[in-house]
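hey can u run this one w/ potassium ion bound, need the structure tokens asap thx
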Amino acid sequence: MNVLFRKTNAISGKLSAASRISVLNNHFCPRNHLFNMADNNPTAGIIIIGDEILKGHVMDTNSRFLSRRLFALGVKVKKISVISDDLDVIAKEVAEFSQSFTHVITSGGVGPTHDDLTFEGVAKAFGEEVVAHPELVDLCKEFFGTDDLKSPKLKMALIPKSAKLHFGMNKQTKQIAKYPLVNIRNVYMFPGVPQLLEKSFDMLQSIFANPHTIFHVREVYVDRDEVLITPIINDTDARFHDRVVLGSYPDFYNSYYKVKLTLESDNQQNVDEAQKFLMENLPHGSVVNYEKDPCGTASEHVYGIIKTEDSSHLAVNVRHATRVIEQAFEKYKPEELCIGFNGGKDCTALLHLTYAVYRTKYPDETRRLQALYIRRGQPFPEIELFTKIAKDNYHLEIITIHDKIKEALFELKSTHPTLKAVIMGTRRSDPYCENLEEFSPTDPGWAEYMRINPILDWSYKDVWTFIRTFNIPYCSLYDRGYTSLGSMENTHPNPGLQVVDSKGIISYKPAYMLANGDSERAGRN
Ligand SMILES: Cc1cc2nc3c(=O)[nH]c(=O)nc-3n(C[C@H](O)[C@H](O)[C@H](O)COP(=O)(O)OP(=O)(O)OC[C@H]3O[C@@H](n4cnc5c(N)ncnc54)[C@H](O)[C@@H]3O)c2cc1C
Ligand SMILES: NC(=O)C1=CN([C@@H]2O[C@H](COP(=O)(O)OP(=O)(O)OC[C@H]3O[C@@H](n4cnc5c(N)ncnc54)[C@H](O)[C@@H]3O)[C@@H](O)[C@H]2O)C=CC1
Ligand SMILES: [Co+2]
Ligand SMILES: [K+]
Ligand SMILES: [Mg+2]
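ok here u go:
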């Protein structure tokens, strides 16, 4: 959106209504319009300084951290700029930002090396020189054992002449930070190292806090292509754009929705009204009740359904499987247990349940849940990717072994001798599994483990009902018609899900739409 807003004279803090500038913001709105909210709310601009980021060697995480934190403090970030370690570029950008925003935050370039030019660049922006600040000289002396102003070690003590120092305090230990945040006018110069920047911001965030504003954000998830709902989005914006910022964000890879709409205002009632209007005008049944943090809320939701009087098939299944997993954690210590995880839907459902039980039983445990991934044949890249996603989502410690299953389990004995049992997503309909029990030791001739099968009697449909109801992330192949995943050589989309359009183009419906679970393995050979 090209929002026109009033330029704030950040130095005096007053608004100069005469001069208006436009900034870029991520919003679909095609029109320029005056945005009232911006009139009295403080704004911020972030300047990320560093050649390493422009070359793609380092991913910028500081702007995301700062934007989120500033938003939570009631401060709107209006622009993020990434620039090189170049004196004149820094000076020009800082001068411009300082004029345009209430606060300017820079990241990087405050270290001792030749390419750290932020202090000099900021000084130049305001026509100042850098001078040795006595307090910083003392600090550097203490740190590096020299007060030779020509030494590169003292470079960090050379700051713009009128700069101020802000010493943060650790809220827990009450210790004063050793190194201060350097500031001149409305510009605050943070280090680039994310740990240093985050720590420093944590201690000094009250400088930026806007006590008058809380941004209220509402998300609406829609299961329709963005082009189909664009007229409704534009209608809503036309009606509310002076009160609510509306955002539209399509996601081509999410299994649960196609577009996320965000409504945001510093007034809760405005958000409510805009949401009501949207809900009344979006196509019937297109709004999805989506949980955006299914993994973080796993315990809450799994135990939520267990504790109710709910006698639905889903609730009965969840209650039963959870009970088996709880027994597993009663019989075995966390270090003796792992979950057999190959990225498939069954163990994905099981992982969610196991994680919910584990976090409930051991809320303070820092040890990660262990997952065994036996990599065979040529795994699909989608499975490899999903394994990594699951690892992050559920904080897994993944044990990967490259071998056939039987051999891999013998190797596991020597690499991980504490393991005694594997929780598995086996179902009775899997080959050779009709006589399994919930606790079945491995067969003679196999490495000795207890196999634990909490979802043994779940059907194909049960697994999908659970996954879809709890918005659990799953491997993307299932959305492309695969219903049972082997390796790339022997797995194809399920013919039962094939759709041929009028032009003869073939596509596949998602796995959860397969009507007959008995044909689950029809894509395997
Ligand atoms: C720990 C373990 C013990 C086993 N013990 C025996 C045994 O005693 N006797 C016997 O005949 N067969 C045993 N098997 C083989 C098993 O019965 C199946 O043949 C095998 O899991 C493949 O089944 P599937 O094709 O139905 O796959 P799936 O339906 O995908 O497998 C069922 C479950 O097994 C686990 N699993 C499957 N493949 C992997 C993998 N590559 N890495 C990690 N976990 C995986 C997952 O939890 C999965 O949900 C064992 C397998 C495992 C993983
Ligand atoms: N102890 C403290 O509080 C302070 C220490 N210093 C010293 O200064 C030096 C570091 O100064 P910097 O300005 O940080 O140097 P810098 O600009 O060279 O950045 C250092 C590293 O931080 C990472 N980084 C930079 N920008 C990033 C971004 N946007 N997102 C993610 N990662 C990013 C990159 O890996 C980069 O190599 C160190 O020697 C440090 O000890 C500087 C200021 C404060
Ligand atoms: Co707009
Ligand atoms: K550097
Ligand atoms: Mg740098």
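The first strand starts at residue 2 and ends at 9. anyway lmk if its weird
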